[in-house]
Amino acid sequence: MADELLQSRGVKPTPQRVVITQFLLDSHDHPTADEVLEGVKDSLPVSLSRATVYNTLNTLVEAGVVKAVSLEPGRTRYDANTIEHHHFVDTKTGKIIDIPWEKVSQLCQTLGPEYKIQDYQITFFGELAEPTP
Ligand SMILES: [Zn+2]
Q1: What range defines the domain where residue 98 resides?
Q2: 95 shares its domain with 53
Q3: Does the reported pTM lie above 0.85?
Q4: Count of domains in the chain?
Q5: What separation in Å is there between the alpha carbon of 98 and the centre of ligand 1?
Q6: What protein residues have CB closer than 5 angstroms to ion ligand 1?
Q7: Are residues 66 and 89 in the same domain?
Q8: Which member of 6, 46, 60, 133 lies 3.0 to 4.6 Å from 11 by CB, making a disulfide possible if both were Cys?
Q9: What is the chain's pLDDT, residue by residue, as a tens digit (133 residues)?
């Protein structure tokens, strides 16, 4: 699945690109580059350097295979969900949840027609409530 995705985006599916892409497709918690490195290091016969992971992630972002998201200052996370969406960050656990784009897009209409919005991203911060039994 990962190699087909890479080929459809015009990226040569080298072993490290396939492994990193598959890791991101399987993880829904928006990992950082270090978390990607930690997550894939046992999946390849040769060890990956941090630089290789960073370079590979940059290649994947440029090709539109994954998205880079910054939800906290100075920290980039990677998301295989490339459909426009927003995020909810649980400030207690750090869990990040995707929120569909359409649910929030009506907010933009409050700005009025003189604003032509080209892009936006909203991050909600809060805590997940305990499930009621
Ligand atoms: Zn996301």
Answers
A1: 85-126
A2: no
A3: no
A4: 2
A5: 5
A6: 79, 81, 98
A7: no
A8: 6
A9: 899 999 999 999 999 999 999 999 999 889 999 999 999 988 888 888 999 999 999 999 999 999 999 888 888 999 999 988 889 888 888 889 898 877 777 777 777 788 777 767 788 888 888 877 7
Helix (H, G, I), strand (E, B) or coil at 112: coil
- Cα of 25 to ligand 1 centre, how many Å? 11
Strand pairing class (85-90; 123-126): parallel
CA 104–ligand 1 middle distance (angstroms): 14
Q: How far apart are CA 101 and CA 107, in angstroms?
A: 11
Residues 21 and 66 occupy one common structural domain: yes
Whether residues 98 and 119 share a domain: the answer is yes
Q: With beta carbons less than 8 A apart as the criterion, state whether 29 and 90 touch.
A: no
Is 67 found in the same domain as 44? yes
Ligand 1 centroid from CA 87, angstroms = 6
**Single-letter residue type at 56:** T
Q: How many Å lie between the centroid of ligand 1 and the Cα of residue 51?
A: 24
Contact 81, 98 (CB under 8 A): yes
Both 97 and 55 in one domain: the answer is: no
Give me 81's structure tokens: 């969900």
pLDDT at position 114 is 82
Q: Amino acid letter at 91?
A: T
Give me ligand 1 centre to Cα 23, in Å.
Answer: 15
CA of residue 42 to ligand 1 center, whole Å: 25
